């Protein structure tokens, strides 16, 4: 039976008039429920349209090419990296060696990867990975970083004093920020 009120008592005989009456009540109930669902659907559709309009308005305010990376932003990133390296090197002197390996990768990432849009970020990140993070490229980068560490520090000539000199360098760099024109020399 389609009408639930009639299906509840299958053994009871119901007159045709009662059956018609219950069917009419059930049809009216379904019609009311359908109207309520349609009203809710209309309200949700209007809410979706309002949200889409708000999103569109926000997107219109964004620059067409994404947020530009200026040299000021690049310099700020460099300063943040230097501060982070100083802080971590003070906590663990081995981080200095890691920073010498990671800084060239950071610089290349910063110069190659574009955040102009999601597709651009994806494309340039993969290009950066393909060019700068291959095993041969990483071998070369590590070798160059180790050479730099050996040239700029006393790790080969005075390995026992290396840790102390790094901590002193970090203290000095906190007093005098490292800029392109003034960098404390060898450790």
TrEMBL record:
GO terms for cellular component: nucleus. Residues 27-61 form a coiled coil. This is MLXIPL. Keywords: Coiled coil, DNA-binding, Nucleus, Transcription, Transcription regulation. It is found in: Nucleus. It comes from the Eukaryota. The lineage of its organism: Eukaryota, Metazoa, Spiralia, Lophotrochozoa, Bryozoa. GO terms for molecular function: DNA-binding transcription factor activity, RNA polymerase II-specific; protein dimerization activity; RNA polymerase II cis-regulatory region sequence-specific DNA binding. Gene3D superfamilies: Helix-loop-helix DNA-binding domain (4.10.280.10). It comes from Bugula neritina.
């Amino acid at each position: 039976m389609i009408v639930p009120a009639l299906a509840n008592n299958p053994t009871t005989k119901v007159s045709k008039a009662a059956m018609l009456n219950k069917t009419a009540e059930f049809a009216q109930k379904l019609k009311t429920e359908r109207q309520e669902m349609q009203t809710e659907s209309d309200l949700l559709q209007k809410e979706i349209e309002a949200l889409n309009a708000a999103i569109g308005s926000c997107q219109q305010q964004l620059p067409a090419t994404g947020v530009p990376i200026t040299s000021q932003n690049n310099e700020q990133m460099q300063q943040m990296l230097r501060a982070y390296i100083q802080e971590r090197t003070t906590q663990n002197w081995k981080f200095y060696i890691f920073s010498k390996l990671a800084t060239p990768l950071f610089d290349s990432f910063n110069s190659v990867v574009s955040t102009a849009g999601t597709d651009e970020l994806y494309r340039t990140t993969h290009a950066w990975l393909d060019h700068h993070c291959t095993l041969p490229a990483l071998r070369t980068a590590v070798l160059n970083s180790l050479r730099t560490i050996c040239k700029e520090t006393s790790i080969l000539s005075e390995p026992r004093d290396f840790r102390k000199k790094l901590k002193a360098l970090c203290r000095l760099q906190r007093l005098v920020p490292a800029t392109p024109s003034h960098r404390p020399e060898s450790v």
